[in-house]
Specification:
alpha+beta; seven-stranded antiparallel sheet; five-stranded antiparallel sheet; globular
Length: 325
């Protein structure tokens, strides 16, 4: 009996006011629109579940698959921990304009308010334009009252850490860290399965009907870590061919990178988890232990089931993997 196969999904392109055209270009696809800000690569978000693009499960969505194959895909440990909820959301983000300043709740607050997980996330800078930047964390501790007043008088950015972005930089954003992606970034985002965002400042922008976008200043007070003054600066993906490096290691996900030269064998059995693999440079081919091949072009992602003990990555490429310890 053959093992459960590697899955690839149809990307879900999201049209937003700050989006651009770079995601489709990065993926080598025809234009998807002039304001595509996000491509949801692998998602279990209710109502936005990923749909399998090819193979014997083509056309079936994530929830449908987990109902039938949760233990094969997630493994026993994660099936018990998450049930029928796929725990990670993978996105590419193209910021042709500044995103709003925002913060996400942690698991406890999100469960109390929204009956869903919180949103700890990470970013990998894949292809920043010259002059690209982002904001993450606070430059000094502030009080809720100062926070409110600085949002009201348009000076909140003065309290945020600002970073020029460079290729292969890695930013970790635990729930509670105030942040904003500035214009000119193309980013890979790995996050908990949650779509809860508290928008706290939006540069007085207007929507298509000329109205200011809704802010969530009071709602965000309980979510913000007002003492978050350390560790927001990025790390950098290390150099080294055919060597696996850990980029982020937290309760919600672990992320690694490999700069593959010709081929690299991913040992997966010890993970006791599904693995997601994303090509951020070059094209790859994934070969499982039974010799089945799955194409993974640049900008695309694949879900390797927990039941698969190893995968060989062929090509000259840089891949990111993520799983849950």
């Amino acid at each position: 009996m053959s093992t459960f196969p590697i899955l690839v999904f149809e990307p879900q392109f999201k049209d937003v006011i700050w989006g651009g055209k770079r995601i489709a270009q990065f993926k080598g696809l025809p234009a998807q629109g002039d304001h595509i800000g996000e491509s949801w690569e692998i998602s279990g978000v209710p109502g936005h579940e990923s749909v399998v693009a090819d193979g014997i499960y083509k056309g079936r969505n994530m929830l449908d698959l987990l109902r039938e194959f949760s233990r094969e895909i997630m493994g026993d440990r994660l099936s018990k921990r998450y049930g029928m909820e796929f725990p990670l959301l993978i996105k590419f983000i193209d910021s042709a304009d500044d995103l709003s300043v925002q913060v996400h709740p942690d698991d406890k607050l999100a469960a109390e308010r929204h009956n869903c997980p919180g949103k700890t996330e990470m970013w990998i800078s894949v292809s920043p334009e010259d002059g690209a930047y982002l904001y993450a964390g606070l430059t000094r501790a502030i009080t809720p009252d100062e926070y409110r007043s600085r949002i009201a008088d348009n000076t909140i950015l003065e309290c945020l850490g600002k970073f020029d972005t460079h290729k292969n930089e890695v930013f970790f954003l635990p729930a509670g860290r105030v942040h904003s992606i500035g214009r000119g970034n193309l980013i890979l985002e790995i996050q908990e399965t949650s779509d809860i965002t508290y928008r706290i400042y939006d540069f007085d922008r207007r929507d298509a009907n000329g109205n200011p976008r809704q802010l969530h200043v009071e709602e965000s007070i309980a979510a913000v870590d007002f003492n978050d003054t350390e560790n927001a600066a990025p790390t950098v993906i290390p150099d080294g061919k055919n060597e696996q490096f850990t980029l982020v290691d937290c309760y919600h996900f672990t992320a690694t990178s490999v700069d593959v030269e010709n081929q690299f064998r991913l040992e997966l059995s010890a993970r006791d988890s599904f693995s997601i693999i994303i090509a951020i440079e070059g094209d790859a081919v994934l070969i499982d232990a039974e010799g089945r091949q799955t194409s993974l072009p640049k900008g695309f992602s694949a879900l390797i089931p927990a039941s698969m003990p190893e995968v060989t990555v062929k090509g000259n490429c840089k891949v990111v993997t993520t799983y849950i310890k």
